[in-house]
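Consider a concrete sample entry:
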Amino acid sequence: MRTQSPEPAAPRKATPRSIVIWTLVALVGAAGWSVLALSRGEDVSAAWMVAAALGSYALAYRFYAKFIAYKVLRVDRTRATPAERLNNGIDFHPTDRRVLLGHHFAAIAGAGPLVGPVLAAQMGYLPGTIWIIVGVIFAGAVQDMVVLFFSTRRDGRSLGQMAREEIGPFGGAAALVAAFAIMIILLGVLALVIVNALAQSPWGTFSIAMTIPIALLMGFYLRVLRPGRVSEVSLIGVALLLLALVAGRWVAESSWAGTFTLAPSTLVVWLVAYGFVASILPVWMLLAPRDYLSTFMKIGTIALLALGVVVTLPTLKMDPVTDFAAHGDGPVFAGSLFPFVFITIACGALSGFHALISSGTTPKMIQKETQIRMIGYGSMLMESSVAVMALVAACIIDPGLYFAMNAPAGVVGTTVQSASVAVGHMGYVISPEDLAAAARGVEEQTLLSRTGGAPTLAIGVSEIFSKVTGGGLRAFWYHFAIMFEALFILTALDAGTRVGRFMLQDMLGNVYRPFKNVSWKPGLVVTSALVTGLWGYFLWVGVHEPLGGINQLFPIFGIANQLLAAVALAVCTTLLVKSGRLKWAWITGIPLAWDATVTLTASWQKVFSSDPRVGFFQQRSVYQDGIDAGKVLPPAKTMDDMHTVVTNSTVDGVLSAALALLVVVVIVDAARVCVRHVRRPALSSLSEAPYVQSKIVAPAGLIPTRAEKAEEAERDAVGAVQGG
């Protein structure tokens, strides 16, 4: 029985036409980087940032991703994937590459690529741009693709279970616990962002609610009514989505507005119920078509935003590198450029959450191994482009407005006068009249201390789009962007909940074997209820207690996510070594070394820093001293709040230390396994599923090649003969 993939075919020779095209692409990217890096004091158009990003992405996908897929991983188009071998219509289901690309992108693209770059803009536009683009090419997209490949070779095993099987019970147990704990934190934070975005917003609530019946219609259309007619269902879905977006504004201005104006606590109940149902329904019915539908809106909006930047050529008003990068005393978040800009910008460059999707839903749905490059690497490049556009949106608005919006009320106060003075002390100028006018322009009462990044992105989006469509639509574009962000995040929540269920089933399957079958109905119901119950509990408490629940865990969100990436890269490096790819282990080994250095440094500072704005235990000490002295310190408003802050900082400090320790255990144990394999390969074993010949014919990319079209035509001809 064959267990190894054949060597890939020899690469096609470059033609004069392809050489000219890729030379021009390289020149565009190089021009963008040159302007961003060498400009000193003169105005810089945001279009150069877009040029640097798109040129770099195109080169990386064409050359580096292809090299990894075909030379390093040796993807095999003749090998059946778990979706084909284990197809049960619930979790395992061969899914059209276009629909799966939409699902995977929608699942990984949550709050991170929108919010992180906006917050990191306080350091200037250059550090964030470099990390987003370079990080995704050499770390984030590589992690996503390699995890997806190895999980596909192992029947869609979760990241933690792969660690347990390939590293060993000790490091594997640490990985399982760390991955599941971090997943619950991530899901709770994502859900909180959705609640904050949709609370008291009938337009957003209606439009997003309508995506559910539209997705169900699309799922049944592809499964029952017109199987395989992806183009048809895409047109229907997009038309209905646009109608839902327009109707959302009508509803908000009608007598129905009250029905869709929901309190935060009501939204929590609906989100928990939706998360539970979405995680147990067959993937073809709701999850995949809904994510595919959402992708049209996401990619369409980002593409229009990039086009708007090219047309309007807005100037980057933020400094390339601000003083806050060196001093670490920024009002948005405390800490120096290293390591905190690499923690704040997570999902657009490198994200551990993605590894859970790449070892969760996607490997159980992919048709062919050759599609791993497009879905794993390509989706991450798409998400990185979202992060670039978010950074552009934050950096083209007036820096004074940016800091007034993103600094907490304890810094800028509650009036436009106090905010103007506070921003002036930061070295930027904005008048009270300008602050008030900015709020009126988007039909908001105030824009002060609208922390979290979402409103800032919405302001930037409205700034660009209104220059194209006219200033009268500025408020429309602002509220459209707010709803757009909520849709972005919700699609990550439903897929994340399903992945959390897979992870819990893998863990419990080590104790009670029926749980190993992820489609075993009693098991999937029980584990889905447990996962939604866990993040739902933290969300409920967070909504009712401003300093409690998921708010308590929010400060460790970024570090936890990047620690999870270190686990994923450690597993990938171990598997490269054990599968005979030692000479290519640097592909994930170098990103692992960088990510471990960044995240463990950040963890150390968050635990032991003497600055109370950075170190959790120092913060605990300051607030405990305040309690002893009978003083109430901001953001606390009462003595009870003071006690809550002490509790929160203690919990966050202990969790940060515990998660960092678990990750160190995984990395050390992975290194031990790699060294042992190099010295005595006979002692190693792989849990890779045996080779089975694939009967599915499907293209590797979005557009079939001439050879793939011929293969599909031959398949259709054979099918017609057999059918006749």
